[in-house]
Amino acid sequence: MKKLTAIVLALVFALSAATVAFAATSVYECPACGAIVEGEKEFNTHLEKTCPEVGSEGKLKECPYEGCDAAFKIQAEYDKHLEICYFKPEPSIADKVSDFIAGIDFKEVFGKVTDFLGGIDFAGIIEKVVGFISDAVGNL
Questions:
Q1: Which of 6, 20, 30, 93 could form a disulfide with 35 if both were Cys (CB 3.0 to 4.6 A apart)?
Q2: Where is 138: in which H helix or E strand?
C-alpha cells in the first residue's frame, strides 16, 4: 500500500511540474537596451550576441583605475563599480579645490555681491569721511 501511495504522489508531483515545463513561450525585456524578445532561447541569444549594450558586439568597458581588472558590458554596472572600486585613488587637494570651484555658480555669487554693494550708501559714507577729515584738519 505504501508503494502505491508513493507512486501516486510521484505522479501527482510530476504532472503538476509538467504544466510549468510546457507553458507558453514568455516575453522578455532586455534590462540593458529595453528590446522585447520572445522566448528564453532567443532572449539568451540576444544577451550574448545581438544586444548593443551587453552582447559580444557591444563595447566592453574596463575599469580605468590602475590595478583593477574589472570589465563590464552594462553601463549601469560600470558606473556603479566606479563609485566603489577599491583601486580608486583618493582625490588630491588640487582635485578637491578644482571640484569645489567647478561647483560654484559665479552668476549667483556676482548677483549677491551686486545686491550687497547696491545696498551700501556710498554717498553717505563719503560725506561722513569728508566731514571727519575737515573736522580733523580744522582742529589742527
A1: 30
A2: helix 122-138
How many Å separate Cα 129 from the centre of its chain?
A: 57
Residue 37 has what DSSP assignment? E
What single letter denotes the amino acid at residue 126? I
* Whole-prediction pTM: 0.33
Series of mean pLDDT values for 10-residue runs along the chain (140 residues)? 78 73 72 80 77 63 86 81 88 89 91 90 89 80
Closest CA to 14 of 3, 4, 25, 6: 6
In angstroms, the CA 63 to CA 80 distance is 11
Q: Name the grid cell of 58.
A: 557591444
Rounded Cα distance between 17 and 10, Å, is: 11
C-alpha cell at 48: 550574448
Cβ contacts of 86 within 8 Å, gap of 6 or more: 68
